[in-house]
């Protein structure tokens, strides 16, 4: 039996490795190297998976999580870690149960997978693009057509990725191939993507840890999302882990684009989530007493990062030359409100080519979740981000990619 795997990312490499147990495998990659996108995951460190119990994964996959049960339990996070460890790649667990290579180098993950594929006998064709999957009158796979030639085969695994980070080769090719074969494509949208805000302050590059965020639909007074962790101010708005996770909720929120246009989506940042308003009030009062002879503009160093101080000064409308001892309780209330409910208006998502993953893709209703085989074309399997499945940050997306790759490569 001959199997062709289209796409040399983590899903394609895992599918190729597994498929060698039953078939001769050709892996076709249009780039000159495998795993270009894998190299930039986790800021170049590669957040391989998450160490939480596998039963918690579905809750971290907001888009078609139930579809992933078979794949996740067929190839669990523990199995992935053992697989990589047995190949010589040491791993470690960090905050939030995120799993990384000990070396902090995504290249080591890529090289481990590539070396394994080659050792297993996978033939790798790079710099070659697949244009179509050919089928017979019975809708059975018979060959693939590339920009170079036609290659006969018995089965095909489509693992071309989504549309995010197109410079790495994720340009939506798989959607075109699948659509030609009769599959439905759920409109690709950015997921895990930074947010554009109306208010852009001169604090780009400022990273804040241990802050709380709450996203509200102010027209309905409805809370959309709430989280705690790390975020980042940018030249267009905000980013960072908790913002990227928030975008996964927002992209699915009803009429969100229209509500953004009308200024109806607000994000509130809590710079001091561990302190209730009353306790923060007393804390500020103690600081003001400590620095009572300083001017307001010079007395906030213990409370805020330096870059944030000019913004709080401006928004509070308190005279920055006023002595700390002369600031009233009412003015302290204003400061407390700013620190506990710093308001930003969300105007848009950044483009899909800046998204970490794509929301959308091949409709899961047309895929057998127990095998990853197409319900339309016999012998056609899917793996990875090309499927309409996406998860939150923390290693959940890559685990989904590896699990679907492994299941598709099982060729059941």
Task: Write a structural description.
The chain is of the alpha+beta class and 412 residues long. The chain folds into two domains: 2-190 and 356-409, FAD/NAD(P)-binding domain, CATH 3.50.50.60; 194-350, Helicase, Ruva Protein, domain 3 (Orthogonal Bundle). The protein is 27% helix and 25% strand. The protein is built from eleven helices and 19 strands. The protein has helices spanning 10-19, 69-74, 77-86, 106-119, 173-180, 241-250, 256-261, 277-290, 309-316, 329-340, 396-409; strands at 2-6, 24-29, 49-50, 91-94, 98-101, 123-126, 130-135, 141-146, 150-152, 155-158, 185-191, 195-197, 207-217, 222-233, 237-239, 265-270, 342-349, 357-362, 380-382. The strands form five sheets. A six-stranded antiparallel barrel has the order 12-15-14-13-16-17. A five-stranded parallel sheet has the order 6-2-1-10-19, covered by helices on one side. It has a three-stranded antiparallel sheet with strand order 3-5-4. A hairpin with a 5-residue loop joins strand 7 and strand 8 (141-146). The longest helix is centred in the N-terminal third of the chain and has 14 residues, at 106-119. The radius of gyration is 25 Å and the shape is elongated. It starts with a strand and ends with a helix.
